[in-house]
Every structure is written in structure tokens, then in C-alpha cells.
Automatic annotation (TrEMBL):
This is Putative transcription factor WD40-like family. Signal peptide: none annotated. The lineage of its organism: Eukaryota, Viridiplantae, Streptophyta, Embryophyta, Tracheophyta. Residues 1-88 are annotated as: Disordered. Residues 58-88 have a biased composition (Basic and acidic residues). It comes from Rosa chinensis (China rose). Residues 31-57 have a biased composition (Low complexity). Pfam families: WD40.
Amino acid sequence: MSPIPLRSRPQSKTDLLIPAITPKVSQPPKVAGSSGKAQVSSSSQASPAVSSQSISASKEKGDKSYRSSSKQDVEVQDKGTKRKFEEKEHKELIPMVRTSSKPSIIQCHSNNHISSHHKRKLRCLYMCPVNDQLFATSALDGLVNLWEVQGRGSGASLLSTTDCQSPKQRRWPEDIAWHPHGNSLFSVYTADGGESQVSVLNLNRTQGKPRVTFLEAKPHVKGIINSIVFPPWENTCFVTGGSDHAVVLWKETDAENVWKPKQLHRSIHSSAVMGVAGMWQKQIILSVGADKRIIGFDANMERTEFKHQIDSKCMVVAESKVKRV
């Protein structure tokens, strides 16, 4: 029987890898009549071994080439996959071992969860500037809690709870700040509706005096006061930034709980001021806002020292706690 050409073979459902070079099997032309039959039979009888050998050889070569190519394919895929896994594992281990070439023990410490004792979401948490065992929290319930760290940070105990809501609208503190002496906490609110804008929580118990007092000055004209901070300067003062685009400097006076406000600027920011901070080296006030601007303003010279535009809204700015010599 003559071999079936490759094109007329039934195709399987799976894709096969066909070698690039396949041996061609020649067939003798058919001749009409008995002589044709004799020629066909004689040719088929004369060269059965050759044709079968060539066909079997071609099949073996094709099978070998298919097996070798598929095997090589699998090996390449396996090697590639293995390399990818090794690289991935290597990348994940780099942050753990860093630059050390020796094995090291990774210390794992447990954390503790304690109740905030607030009825609504937390708003702020700040450490005391003179005692690293004390910190204060504020929340949307209008309460300001004073805490003391227990042990080596294993827990915290609640020392006091004070209602610091504004007197008219009963607003919660938007932001709080410690006095540099660590004896009081300042809170800011809103400028809408003639509301008090700043309150002072005296942490030293004094008989006959309220713990919370509200400053009379109201320099912000509208909207929420988003930030309050005490710059690291010799003369005690604090700075506020609000939704009215204003940055205000408050200076301490000789009278108790009387602070004199001074507007530094209101037109430099085109949107709400979200954060303020003071620099160590110079009396420069940093302010950032929803307008994607970072402003450095010299409080003594009353001028803008620098201005930067970034790609997204800036919500917070903080000064370094380490003073450069």
C-alpha cells in the first residue's frame, strides 16, 4: 500500500509541533491497462524495503525532532519559570536580610489593642513634648482624653476625659496641639456662626477655674480651622490654618489665656489650608493646602520665601523634631 500523504491524514484536536523539514515520499504514476498493474505491482514488490525504510526513517526523524523540540520547549519553559520564581523570592527576601550576608533572627513583637474610650471616630493623637509617657486623643464626640503609657509600651491607662465641644454649635475639635510646656492642650474649631475658634484645656487642676476656656479673638472669617501647631521658637506662639485660605500667627501676651492673632497671609493659597508647621533655623511658617501648594512664609520679614507646586493635594506638613546644630 502506498503511504497516505500528510495533508490527507485526519487532524487531531490538539496542536502538534510539525518539524520544519519533512521527507517527501515519491509515488510512481499510474498507467492504464494490465501493464500498469504489473508496473505498479513490480514497483511495489521491487522497492518495498526501500520505501518502508525511508518512510520509517522519516517517521523516526519526525518523531525524534518532535520529541526533541517539545522536550527542549518544556525545558526552556521550566527554566524560565524557575528563574522567575527565584527572582521573585529573591526580591521578597531583600528587605528582610538587607545587606547582611549572614543568617539573622527576625524579632517579632506582639501588639496590644486598647479601647479609646471615645464614642465616635478618633480625630487626633499627639505625644506630650516634655513627657514621652503622656499622649492625648480627640474624637468626633468632642472629648479629649489624656493617656499614660504603661510599662514599655505594652498598654496605656486613661488619666482624664474632658468635654471640649464648642459652646454654641457643640462642635468637636478639628485639631489639637500641646503647649510647649506640656501643661495645656489647644484645640481649634470652625469660624462659621460666630463660634469660638480656639480653646485651651488646662491640665493642672486649679480650684475655682474652669478646665476649658475659649479665646475671644476670632481672626478666621469662615469655614473649618484645619490645623494648629506651636513652632519650635523661643517666643511661645502658635499658628492656625483654615478653609478661608488664611494662615494666622497667635502671640502670647502677659495676660492669662489672652493671645493676640496676626494674619500672615490669606491670598497666597487659592484653596483651603490643610496643614501648618514651623522651621527650626528661621522663623518661617510652612503651609500646605488643597491647592497643591507648599508655601514658606517669613514671619519676621512678612514675605514669601519660597513656593512649590506639587501634583496632588497636600494634607499634612510636619517639622523635624531634631534640631540641626
